[in-house]
Design goal:
The protein has about 180 residues and is mainly β. It contains one helix and 13 strands; from the N terminus they run αβββββββββββββ.
Length: about 180
Amino acid sequence: MRLALLALLIGAPLNAQLIDWGVKGGFPFTDAVSASGAFKAASANWTVGPTVDINLPLGFGVEFDALYRTVGYSGPLSDNSAGSWSFPLLAKYKFPGPSMVRLYVSGGYVFRSIGDMTRLVNNGSQGLAFGVGLRYAVKRVRISPELRYTHYYTDAFRATGASGNSLSTSSNQFSFLVGVTF
């Protein structure tokens, strides 16, 4: 009898869903590559990947994404592109409000890895990300559009030359993302 009462007391707070999982995707407002002169940026205008959202008490939470995007550039002699993965680990706070729609803010650490391509000298970079969005909850589905700013500290390319030719990764990234979780 005591065991049943203990299970009931422990299970009551766990009635709300602790972990949401799904997919997040969207499009960047800024290109991943900054190019000038003979170089031209040629990155994909979309990003997509899995997302996990851990809901904690008092509106707090933790989000982890694995977002894929193709980045690249065209040069005087060839076109170059590679896959790029970003792995943000974000703390979240959902402001109090109606249960169907809640404003949230997020911020945290991001690691980015770019696949191998010409002129790439550093395929990994770290940074910080900050976001603001709305979370719409309809039964078991949650839709979360957000605006996200990411700042990377490391440049992946080292290419400068005569006539104003330069190639670098953009340190500041702005994106519109939409998460769909269950």
